[in-house]
Amino acid sequence: MSVFPRHGGMDMDMGSGSDSGSGLMMMAMVFQTNTATPLYANSWTPRNAGAYAGTCIFLVVLAIIGRLLLAARSIQEARWLAKDMKRRYVAAQGKASLSDRISSDSLAKPMTLTANGVEESVIVVAQAGAVKRPWRFSVDPLRAALDTVIVGVGYLLMLAVMTMNVGYFMSVLAGVFIGSLAVGRHSGAGEH
């Protein structure tokens, strides 16, 4: 039985044998080349080759935007980290100074640093645990908004690929390639 007649390859099948009584429906997932494949809504169904090409170009641009957003987030994270590292701390009265805390720290080790023949006495302190950056009103809402936009674009691209339309799939891949070629060096290593 064909539930989606204009989408060749997306037939619904009730199965046979012992599974037919369970009511499970199996969808045949095969790539198809129908140019009248809806994207995101039935109202966005290309009616001719020009509209289909425009939809594919939209997907290329959306995938490029996705890569640009990942790069922008990575660059912004580096800026936020640099700003945190430059942050100055003030010692409060009655609290031990940094030099007093370092000298009494069991992880602190006196060493000699040599650079270009000049020796300098330094104290190396091992990090006791992971450094937790504090929540900041100037950073975290922007980070959350950027993450939300990145995930939204990613889901839109995923939905386009899930139409199983070859043109849409290739358009998403082309956009990822172009975007990564342009700004991939700025993206974080673990992001996709």
From TrEMBL:
Keyword Cell membrane: no
Keywords: Copper, Copper transport, Ion transport, Membrane, Transmembrane, Transmembrane helix, Transport
Entry keyword annotation includes Oxidoreductase: no
Top-level taxon of the source organism: Eukaryota
Record's GO cellular component terms: plasma membrane
One Pfam family of this chain: Ctr
Membrane topology qualifier: Multi-pass membrane protein
Chain segments annotated as coiled-coil in the UniProt record: none
Example of a GO MF term: copper ion transmembrane transporter activity
Record protein name field: Copper transport protein
